[in-house]
Give the backbone structure.
Amino acid sequence: MLNRMIKELNLKEEQLGLSVHHLQTGESYSINGDVLFQTASTIKVPILWSLFKQIDKGTISLNDKYTIVEEDFVPGSGVLNEFVPGLQVTIKDLATLMIIVSDNTATDILLKLIGKNNVEKDMRNLGLENTYVRQTIWELLCISVGMNEKNKTKETYEELIKRLHYLQVDKNSIVFTENIENNVMSPNDMTELLKIIYEGKELSKTSRDEIINIMRRQHFTHRISKYLPPEVKVASKTGSLFTVANDVGIIELPNNQGAYVISAFVRDSNEAAGSEMIAKISEYLFDYFND
């Protein structure tokens, strides 16, 4: 099936990491499934899982309050850095914003509370050996444009905004490599994590349902969801970083035909082309599983 899809969609295999799994039949496909890809903002799915693991343990509550200060601000996607410092939000607010509008400030606050090492440790405990969480979003963005990520000041914040705006990408940066000192993940690992979420393994039913509910409220629907019928339920998370375009999600088929997972990672492409590639793959797979 995948060989036919590659031929019909004129895909370049070396650019694509794809992992697909039907959750009821077990039918699976992959292209470069065990190769490491830059996660960009899809790393927020492992962070979300780790957050709810902490919530189930009782170490964090969704109702806990956090007061945002200027030092928390991270440019790029999201809305929190547009607010006046001093805004008080709940952990649930941060988790929701991290996923549905990919809020970078919310992400780094949650990472500060959970710990990068703990997120990676959680993934290892799930058996995910090809998942590395080594950078905050602030660090990732700085490194990608050749800035010193250790020096966070008002001046470096403004400089980062400028470099991101003018797409001053450092093409030699490790963030665009398979280096494990980077936020990288294999498509098969991401698919396994999404299967674990859907099946509710290791989490309470309440936490599992909350994760699915948050991911279904995704605002960025120009990839996996683009060509799917509007009534189809999709719980997804996109990721973009200059030449990287990703989208991962759980798609529920109509008429009780079950659900399937897609983890799609595209590199060495412009965002529009990468987005369209994922959208066409998603359409093809939906037609296949819905036949």
About this structure: The mean pLDDT is 95. The radius of gyration is 18 Å.
